[in-house]
Amino acid sequence: MIHSLTGAVELGFMYALMALGVYITYRILDFPDLTVDASFTTGAGIAAVMISHGQAPWLATLAAFGGGLAAGICTGLLHTKGKVNGLLAGIIMMIALYSINIRIMGKPNISLLNTDTLFSGVASHEWHDFRLAYIVVLFAVAIVVKLLLDAFLHTDLGLALRATGDNKRMIRSFGSNTDLTTILGVSLSNGLVALSGALIAQDGGSADISMGIGMIVIGLASVIIGEAMLGPKRVFWATLAVVVGSLAYRIVFALALRAEFLHLKATDLKLITAVIVILALVIPTMSRSAKQKQQAKRRTAELAAGMRGKGAI
């Protein structure tokens, strides 16, 4: 059980980068970007190819981030300059990237076993020391990326990006180029997704052409769960909620697999993900609805009491 939970925490921090990318498009830009499912594999494929050919892991990871930026730029250009619907632009790029990813990787699967990765230096002979150091390093990476994103969103360009998602027409009337901010947001989102893919590939020891399938759902689950736990507040707390949501999602998933009475298998990943997302969406909605009904009943009771008081007079 301890091994499962530590593994869930490690994956939670790595997937948090992908969830932060989804947060940019889903919450900030209100852009339904499905490029995520393919750009995740793009990042993993670029990193795996470069590392397997002897390139430095940090350089391969940086190149993976650049590959995600390029994929996002293409989606943004399709939407803003090509006037293609945002959802359709993401689907088109997702389909195109499948073939591009095969070209990049050269084959459906690349192994990174017995090669140096970003995490090779963290390895230790003592299991407990290794896991603790691993978690600390991944925590530091997730927090640094979160803080850098926070800092960017408080710059003039970041504020323009946030305003674009809130009201395009208004920010355009102030002379801001909404096409540029949209492209920037989608590009940054996919860059973070690809970065997450690169880390996952190095952690798992391989990159697979199908490893990105369903990433958009996992990202949305992390965002929704985090918001349900901490609530959508200021940028600092909103991005922190995404990281917490990613951790919570992986821990819930690990516990669900370990629950023997549920009879679940690793192949039930997509089903578990769908159930978690449904619960994260339905429970807060039902809670708000129940509170609204209670408030309405209270107001009705107060009004009735007031009417009775006037009648008695």
TrEMBL record:
It comes from the Bacteria. Keywords: Cell membrane, Membrane, Transmembrane, Transmembrane helix. One of its GO terms (cellular component) is plasma membrane. It is a multi-pass membrane protein. InterPro entries: ABC_transp_permease. One of its GO terms (molecular function) is transmembrane transporter activity. The chain crosses the membrane at residues 12-29, 58-78, 85-104, 132-159, 180-201, 207-228, 235-257, 269-290. It is found in: Cell membrane. This is ABC transporter permease.
